[in-house]
Amino acid sequence: MRKAERVQVVLERLNHRYPETPIPLDHSDPFTLLIAVLLSAQCTDKKVNEVTPALFAAGQTPKAMASLDETEIWSLIRQLGLAKTKAKHVRRLSELLLSEHDGAVPDSFQALEALPGVGHKTASVVMSQAFGVPAFPVDTHIHRLAQRWGLSNGLSVAATERDLKRLFPKKHWNKLHLQIIFYGREFCSARGCDGTVCPICRELFPLRRKPVITRKA
Q1: At what angle do helices 83-101 and 30-39 cross, to 10 degrees?
Q2: CATH architecture of the domain with residue range 30-131
Q3: I need a labelling partner for 208 at 20 to 30 A (CA). Which of 40, 74, 111, 186 fits?
Q4: pLDDT of residue 217
Q5: Catalytic, out of 26, 45, 107, 139
Q6: Calpha distance 117→103 (Å, rounded)
Q7: Which fold would CATH assign to domain 136-204?
Q8: pTM above 0.90, yes or no
Q9: 183-206, pLDDT tens digit by residue?
């Protein structure tokens, strides 16, 4: 099967299986989405959703969050990995939103990535899901599946993002990145599939017998 055909199969199968793509992280606006995505680094979405209700009750807005000290923020997110560093970033980020962006989350990659604790993936999630700007955030699931599906060599996360943007029409990016994550979690996890087990892997490469060794994100 040629790569262009594999791309079409992926789109068709994922659109059929996941017609709706709710954002896994609980939030109510761009600010709470930004904070939730920042907190999700090296954590599961489920764990983040467990701690953010109390955090957002105390700091629903940049002004309210900036009024908390790092210790207060840490006490609310201490169950998460890298909690002390994240608490520092959350408070400083909130201060910068107030001083440099009139208390609003900026809608540009450059401005977002200049904020503490906000990398390209976090900025991409916010741009795509909060502002509807086409983006293709690549997490570990997407990085792994792109390799198993023969869509990228996985040399780096940046390379995977470039490959997927080149292969898939821009109009699909915002929905597709969530669909791939949902599928990776449900069918093509790191341990649950090796490139020969899940339905899409089998359909794309019916003659594949050897496991696919993927590069980590």
Answers
A1: 150
A2: Orthogonal Bundle (1.10)
A3: 186
A4: 80
A5: 139
A6: 17
A7: Endonuclease Iii, domain 2 (1.10.1670)
A8: yes
A9: 999 999 999 999 999 999 999 999
